[in-house]
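Sample pair:
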Amino acid sequence: MSHLDVASCADFARGVLGWKDRAVLERHVAACRSCAATVRMLRDMAMIAAVDEQYEPPAYVLRHARALFSIERPRIMRGLPGLLAKLTFDTLAQPFGAGLRGSSGLSRQAVFEAGEYAVDITLDQPPGSHRAMLVGQVVSRTTQAAPITAAPVLLTLDEKLVARTVCDRYGEFLIEYDPRPRLVLHVVVDGGKRRIEMSLDASAGVPPRLAARRPRTPRGARKRQ
């Protein structure tokens, strides 16, 4: 006895055949154990596919998936429309002692603002260490901004990716890296549609009239509900 091809078995299992063709295949399947097994397998696959098509993954899963994709595709991320951040507060612009530099290490706090967002960062480099730690938080200055959860964060040097991470549910992130000139911090916002770009060079400076006060928005946002 000849067997049915897989395409015919699939059409029979999905019920898309005309009544004449279906009657012929029903007789064959009733007499052929091999084709009957193939039809049962294809029916099970069709049922699983139908259920899977109706499944909608949770929003947080989609956000994390998009974040991971952006992290693994830094060149794509750099092609997003950029929001050039303005440095509005920097302890390195304060009188000596607010931001310590030299052999004793480095401790720096800064606030960047870009559109409806603010990025609050703290950089620490322990004495004698070649590694620095950057802790930051991205906050919305308006209630209309997209959720910042799982926003990709990348640290680059020219076109080279230095470090990467994602924001947690509070918009906070942590990166360890080797300090060097020309480092740029990027945060992808608006659900992957735009990115905030911040130069970490101390030479970027902050206007003197802003050096004496620190914006309160980021600090207030750190209070968790």
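The two ends are 71 Å apart (CA to CA).
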